[in-house]
Amino acid sequence: MHVVAAALIDADGRLLLAQRPPGKHLAGAWEFPGGKLEAGETPLAALARELDEELGVAVEQATPLIRIPWRYNHHELLLDAWCVTRWRGEPRSLEGQALRWQLPIDVDQALLAPADRPLLQALRLPKSYPITPADAPLVQRDHWREQLAAAIVHGERLLQLRLPLWPRDAVRELAADLLPLAERYGAQLLLNEDIDGARALGVGVHLKKAQLVTLAERPLPWRQLIAASCHDAEELAHAVALGADFATLSPVATTASHPGATPLGWPAFHALAEAAALPVYALGGMGPSMSREACAAGAQGVAGIGGFWPDS
Ligand SMILES: Nc1nc2c([nH]c(=O)n2[C@@H]2O[C@H](COP(=O)(O)OP(=O)(O)OP(=O)(O)O)[C@@H](O)[C@H]2O)c(=O)[nH]1
Known about the structure:
Elements (H helix, E strand, L loop, with lengths): L1 E7 L6 E5 L10 E2 L2 E3 L6 H13 L2 E14 L4 E13 L10 E4 L14 H8 L3 E3 L10 H13 L4 E4 L6 H18 L2 E5 L2 H7 L2 E4 L1 H4 L13 E5 L2 H10 L3 E4 L15 H11 L4 E4 L7 H6 L4 E4 L8
Parallel strand pairs: 1-6, 8-15, 9-10, 10-11, 11-12, 12-13, 13-14, 14-15
Antiparallel strand pairs: 1-4, 2-3, 2-7, 5-6
Helix pairs in contact: 3-4
This protein binds 8-OXO-guanosine-5'-triphosphate (8GT).
């Protein structure tokens, strides 16, 4: 079943949610306006029809957000989500559904239809995900504190602290030092691998491939991000089963940090990202200026080390 869903975003960045009426599948859950494609209809035509029928608005501008394959108990669907940023008319409830406008950051994902949680993350997550270089020595502690702070001030909103040469406590200390700035700018920090540290600090964690397969459930509450390093369809499926918020998929191209690895290339990346039920960042040989190319291949954005830091 192919279902189109619209993230209507107003000038203040708020998102329109609708409540599924009693008697329907997932009654009471909040969702994105939309519905099933009719025979012979294109996704955009279905989107225009559904928004006219449900809300009385005419779509003027829609861009692809993310496609989520999902399996409920009795049926499977492809949830094909679009960002609708221009429309004519004032959205109103034409089918008795409750409506509300909320900033994506304020939406309680526990109240959403389960397949909509990755859509919400796709709206919340930025286009770029810088990662600290694995060979940074502890003596460069001050330098990396400055680099991370400058990146946050310059607009980065999602940053991974991956410093395997440092003692865990030094990485935790660095994260703790940066937290007030990160909170002021609405940026999220993720520790690499260190679930206990992330839990103690209230930040996110980026799981290594080896950790991913040993975990049976989400190790942190919903408000703390969980990311996973993935390289194939099986690892992506595992990340989804675990309830990870997003994944990195690598290596897309050849990269200095993993010279022996065979690159996926964009076509394979695209196929894997689209089949995965979560936002996926392209990693490996990426630069910050490649996010358009990555998004065209179904990515949430680009992740990387070289070129992502103010001093590099
Ligand atoms: N419209 C919509 N459907 C969603 C969302 N998330 C989600 O899991 N679904 C599921 O996708 C399917 C779409 O069904 P629908 O009832 O909205 O479709 P429709 O408007 O064509 O309704 P109808 O069956 O009354 O004709 C349902 O199984 C619904 O639970 C969402 O955000 N929007």
